[in-house]
Amino acid sequence: MEQSNSVVFKKRRTFYTDEKLFNARKNRANYGWAKEMIAAVIQEADAFVNHGHEYLWNIVTSQKIPRSYGVNQLSGCPVCKKEIDRLGNYPWLGDPVQHPWKLICPGCWSAFPSNDFAAYYESGKDASGFFNPELADRSLLINTLYPEKDENWCVDDGYGWLDPGNPDKESGRYTFVAYYNHWMLWYNGGVIYSALKALSEAYLFTADMRYACAGTILLDRIADVYPDMDSSVYKWKDGFRNSHGHSGLGKIVGCIWETELVKQFVLAYDALFPAMNHPDIIDFLAKKARLHQMHNRKTSVSAIRHNIESGILLQVYPAVKKRQIRGNAGMHQSALALAAVVLNAPEKSEQWVDHLFKTQSGGSGDLLKILVNDVDRDGHGNEASPSYNNLWLENLKLVADALEGSILSPSIDLYEYPKFRKLSHMAFPLIMLDNFTPSIGDTKKAGDPGIIGRLQTHLSMFERTGDPLLARFVYFLNGNKLEGLHAGIYSDAEKLCARLNGVIDSYGAFQWKSTHLTGYGFSALRDGKEETQRGLSVYYGRNTGHGHKDALNLGIYAFGMDLSPDHGYPCFADQNFEKVRWTANTISHNTVMVNQSEQENQIVGLPNHFTGEGRVRVIDVEAPSVYPQTTLYRRTTAMIQIDDERSYIVDIFRIKGGNEHLYSFHGAEGTVSAEGLSLIKQTRGTIAGEEIAYKDTVFDQSVTSGLNYLRNVERDVNPTAPFSVDWKVKDTWGVHPHCKNVHLRLTMLSEVDEAALADGEPPQNKPGNPQRFRYVLAVRRGADVQSQFVSVLEPYKEKRAIESITSAQLKINGKSVCGSEAYAVRVAFAGGRTDFIVNSLNKDETYTVNDRFEFRGFYGVCSFEKEKPVYAYLCEGSMIKVGERHLFDLDAARCLTGEVVYFTKEMSAVNEIVVRLNESNQGIRLIGKWIYIENDGSRNAVYEIKSVRADGERLILDIGDITLIRSWADDFDFSQGYRYDIYEGARFRIPMSCEWHET
Question: Would the pTM of this model clear 0.90, i.e. be above it?
Fold first, then answer.
């Protein structure tokens, strides 16, 4: 094992251990996937080796050349204008080998800038080999590509070209060179990043010194420039857009994306470390040092390592503290963890790792604070978006991997910490129809299939934890087979598959059931198998960060498709009007907007009822904080079986307060028709008014409604209920090619003041996204208005199963009643079956429903065939009575109450609540039910009961790995303990539900 002359280096490798390299060689010999993976890396590395050492040295640019990812996000291409936006967020092409310093528009194939920047760049190099614009020949700044234009057209000196037709520095500046420098050279996919990654990995896999020499020369040159890098001097307002969360900070790129760049630098150093004493490396770098009069003469391996260490590794800690390297949770922490481990300097490395776990005033460490305060009990981060929350797992896992087996001493073992393990459970409860992660917040595209979460990440988590749930999820992601499974090139694939096989033999494949994630704020009802799967979801979680203002948003899935897709990731993630006023705004989602304003911030809503199995499945949840002017903002949604293959949905949305309630719903892309409405086409303008143009900037500056993003309007200003809107769904994403006639039909039963149809666009720079969705918008107005939007949603194929949908009459003591406290619906089928659905917020009132039966409770369904009852469902109620016949025992669906006596107060994978009931639970099965505990309302306290055991007069309720801890009592002093979501003495309720079948 080689030893360095420097006291800093104690080990040959630190992150890339001998065990990892042994597994890589073994996998390469035994598995085709490993051979293909390594062959691809070697092919890429060979290309860079063939370019030569001079090329690799010279492609590294200095601080004086700006970097920017945001070129032309507003302006488009100078030739084809905004058409380029449809090709993606960052569509420009480039070839640094064949066409250095040129961007190519993929829309019209024009090249930019118009001047020969390569010659200008060479003319400005100083004695150190870095570009200095003060030395450059400005006579070269002339348009040579487009003689039909003036000599200054699209000329870029490195700081962009300002379009004379749009002199605004932010929106009118074309930063061609900065974009090229960012994407084609430095960042992920650029030649510097790609070359370093390929060369270092190729050396690991082959020990071929050609790759080590080329990679070390490139890495050493990066170390020459890295300390001076500071992207903050290139301002957003001047058109230099970088990913820095509007902090303006960064080094090579914005501080968020900088985390990924620097990790590749650190990993490359660890990989190439043993080969850095090769004479070809020392000879080349020593000559360059003499030529450019460098302080470090690079005449020895120690000098080269010192240059890389001081120029890269030792820059990480101060840059993290100064927020120059700062990303989402786990991003900068994993960069610092890798740097600490690879540096392997006892005092510095221990200090850095200690910094990671403590709470810092600038937030640069904070790992324990993040895990306790910010990862919710269901394993989601605080970013709302599943895509971004999944990044927490990926990056925090890298911290765990870096520290695992190192000589450093972190305060906790992340792989043994319950909240970290819970992160790995984030992805699979969200999946709908085996094929969709809902596009919550800034996630995915508009209705596209695909599952958030990498197979290899979850398999690696299983490898280290043995969690059977992860094994079953991995098995599912791999098509319910073991063939080809691997956690990566450095893992023992044979041993891992044997362990997986044992788990699958014991537990079987994953079975999707209904989901109630009360900590995250997502509930889903699921039914059916394989081709007959269908489901609905209600999101009531965070609407901040990478979330949208979409509390109580409804999603519908059937026939292999997302039938009411959310818009997903916005056009651009900055605070542009299209994102803020439309894509992320309340109006674009399937929920209700109050007073033409977006929702206020919330952490999570308040679930009230949930039934996930049986013929009737119910979600009942409210969001009390999103509209302060309301006293009720609540959605109760049920999925009811028609038969084994089909279901329909009854949706009741209640709002009290405010002077306008606007119900918004859209189906998937397709042809839309309406029945029962007298629609008049609006000839111009938007739903905001004929005088308000589409995307009107002046309107956006003063009004937050987003109504000016809905156009092609048809209105009925005096509608009569019921009316229906039918979407003939287009299979936009090609997920169900054999199902040609899928529909989603909405029947609105409530009286409204106005109804309209209008088009709203999902982001159009996401390739494949639909061009438009057709919205139905129903409005109620008044002083302190109370609304009860009641609709029936029917996914169907070819032919409807439902014959008619009407309101059912409700009476109390023989007198008809109306209002927003209760509603009943009658659904009739062609085969003779009739369902009556009734929902009441007054659970103690007795209603007569359509003169057919009596009901008392929260939710009930009673089905008749030939005038006889054949099925009934009752939730938190005491009666469904047909004639003199009671279909339920008095206590069958009652609500148990009591108080909390004690609960688990430490961070644990096993959590319990000890309770005392106010009444007997004799004969009542509590397993699988949900306990709703009163608390301060900051977050809800709703938990599934996994198992029950008696302790005298008390019951001990097992809630599994769901912690009751809310946060640290003092983020800076962990010895002060925790805050909790519940407290001893808190009252609770456990609502029951039950079914009755005619035998």
Answer: yes
